[in-house]
Design a protein that fits this description.
By secondary structure, the protein is an alpha+beta fold. It has 9 helices and 23 strands. It has 2 domains: 200 residues, Ribosomal Protein S5, domain 2 (2-Layer Sandwich), CATH 3.30.230; 88 residues, PDZ domain (Pdz3 Domain, Roll). 30% of the residues lie in helices and 27% in strands. A hairpin with a 2-residue loop joins strand 14 and strand 15. It is globular, with a radius of gyration of 24 Å.
C-alpha cells in the first residue's frame, strides 16, 4: 500500500490551504472591523496665532479608530488583531447603508469638533468668542418615548415653551424647568417648514425627578451660523472623521497659547465637546485606549458619562485614566497631577 501523505500531496494540501486563507483574507465581508490606531500628537496639526513652543517633553494627543470592511477571515477570526471589534454594517452606516453619506457626515462632525474645540479652549482663557446657532439638532428619537411619531432625527428645535434653544444646554434647561408629566411646546424646523409640536414629558428612569421627552440631541450635529474667534485657529487632521477629538482640540489650543497644562505628561484625550464645554460619550473606547497605550501616553482623559471610563480602565494596562464631564474639570484634573518624574 502506498503512502497516503506523500511529500507531493502534503505540498498540494498546504498550497490549497494557503489559497483558501488568501481568498478569505482578500474577500470583504458585510461587516466592519474596528482596530486600534496609535495616538498622535496634535503639535504641528493645531496652529494658533501667538502660539509658543512646548519644550517639556509632554504634549496633547488625539486618538482615532481604524474602521474598514472586515475580510471573511477577520469575520471568522476577528481575534487575529489585538483590540479588534466586529460590527454589523447597519450599526456603522445606519438604516440607509450609504457609505458616502456616512463619510460625509463624519467629516462634517470633525469640522464642527474643530470649531467647538477652538471656541471652548479660547473661552477657558477668558477670550471673547461669539457663537450664533439657529437651534438644537435632534440626533435620534426613542421609538418608545413621548416624542415618537412627533419628532424626527435632524429636526431643528428652535425654541421650547417660547424660550430659544440655540444649544443643547438651552433645550435641556427648558425641558427641566417643569416637572415630569408637563407638556413642552417645541418650535421645530423640518426642512423649509416650521411648526409647533407638543410633547408630554416623562420621568427619567435613572433620575425620577428629572423630565425627559425621549430624544437624543448631540453636539456633533450642531449648526453654527456664525463664529467669531479673537485669534485665528487652524486645525488639520486630514481625512480623519468623527466628533470625538473635540476635547483634545480644546486642550491643545490652551497648551499652544503658552499654558502648560500637560506639565510634561503625554496626555491623550477623547470626547465629543459641546459649546458649553460639556463632554459627551463616544464610541471605540477600547481601540482608543489601546492606541493611547501604544503611543506611550501617560494620562488618558475620557468622558465620564456612559461606560467610557469603565471600558478605558479595562484596557489601560497601567495607563492613568481620568473621567471628565466638562472641559473645566479636565483642566483641573491636569493641574492637580503630581510633578512628572524625569
Amino acid at each position: 500500500m502506498g503512502r497516503i501523505f506523500t511529500p507531493v500531496r502534503l505540498l498540494a494540501v498546504g498550497l490549497l490551504l494557503l489559497a483558501v486563507v488568501g481568498v478569505l483574507w482578500l474577500v470583504p465581508s458585510d461587516d466592519y472591523i474596528l482596530l486600534p490606531s496609535k495616538a498622535q500628537p496634535l503639535a504641528g496639526l493645531v496652529t494658533v496665532k501667538g502660539e509658543r513652543d512646548d519644550q517639556d517633553g509632554g504634549g496633547i494627543y488625539y486618538v482615532a479608530v481604524e474602521l474598514r470592511k472586515a475580510s471573511l477571515l477577520e469575520r471568522l477570526f476577528h481575534g487575529l488583531h489585538e483590540g479588534a471589534s466586529l460590527v454589523p454594517a447597519r450599526d456603522i452606516l445606519g438604516p440607509s447603508g450609504n457609505v458616502k453619506q456616512y463619510r460625509k457626515e463624519e467629516i462634517k462632525a470633525m469640522a464642527l469638533s474643530q470649531e467647538l474645540g477652538a471656541v471652548v479652549g479660547l473661552r477657558a482663557l477668558h477670550k471673547p468668542v461669539a457663537v450664533v446657532s439657529p437651534g438644537t439638532v435632534i440626533g435620534a428619537v426613542d421609538e418608545d418615548g413621548p416624542s415618537a411619531g412627533k419628532l424626527q432625527a435632524s429636526d431643528l428645535v428652535v425654541s421650547a415653551d417660547g424660550k430659544p434653544t440655540p444649544f443643547l444646554r438651552d433645550l435641556r434647561r427648558a425641558i427641566r424647568s417643569s416637572p415630569p408629566g408637563s407638556t413642552v411646546r417645541l418650535r421645530v424646523r423640518r426642512g423649509d417648514a416650521v411648526k409647533n409640536v407638543d410633547v408630554k414629558s416623562v420621568a427619567d428612569p435613572e433620575q425620577a425627578n428629572q423630565p425627559i421627552i425621549g430624544i437624543q440631541a448631540d453636539c456633533a450635529s450642531q449648526r453654527l451660523t456664525q463664529i467669531k474667534l479673537p485669534v485665528p485657529v487652524h486645525i488639520d487632521l486630514g481625512r480623519v472623521g468623527g466628533p470625538s477629538a473635540g476635547l483634545a482640540f480644546a486642550l491643545d489650543v490652551v497648551e499652544e497659547l503658552g499654558h502648560n497644562i500637560d506639565r510634561g505628561y503625554k496626555v491623550a484625550a477623547t470626547g465629543e465637546l459641546c459649546e458649553d464645554g460639556s463632554v459627551l460619550p463616544i464610541g471605540g473606547v477600547k481601540q482608543k485606549t489601546i492606541g493611547a497605550r501604544r503611543a506611550g501616553v501617560d494620562v488618558f482623559l475620557v468622558p465620564e458619562a456612559g461606560d467610557n471610563a469603565k471600558e478605558a480602565r479595562r484596557y489601560a494596562d497601567g495607563m492613568r485614566i481620568i473621567p471628565v464631564q466638562t472641559f473645566r474639570q479636565a483642566l483641573r484634573a491636569l493641574a492637580t497631577l503630581p510633578p512628572k518624574q524625569s
